[in-house]
Amino acid sequence: MSTSTESAATTPRAVGSTVRLLSILVIVAGLIMLVAGAATWFTVQSQLADERITVSDDADWFAGEKINGPLTAYSEAEVIEKHALEASGGKTYAEMDREDPARTVVMNGSFLRASLFTSVVSFGVAAMAMGLGVVVMLIGWALLAVSRQLNAVASPAAS
């Protein structure tokens, strides 16, 4: 298959070496994504746990449990919304009069909900980074297998 006019850069061995280098870089990138996602997940989890917040007793889910994950944070955010709407007679912050004394309660509820939802989003991004890291590492592993096949094809030709 090889001809004397074929450049050394296009030989199966050279292509195999290039693919091998690429596969190693892809595996390392995937590993970095996996570690960064895990570090983010555990940092957010630790920060939430350090606040020592528990889900309200009147929550639909996870009542009384510590908030240290995306599901408990989401559940508490839903309870805060329910309490804020009860305090405001069903009005949102934007719908309330400026002089309404309950407006501060609703505003604080909005801030707390936003903080909890930020945690939920952070958990989601961390999970996505970890999942993509695994997928990228699998792609790198597949490329490594391809490079081995290319090197195996090139080995008999080199003899």
From TrEMBL:
Protein name: Aromatic ring-opening dioxygenase LigA
Keyword line: Membrane, Transmembrane, Transmembrane helix
Listed transmembrane segments: 21-42, 116-144
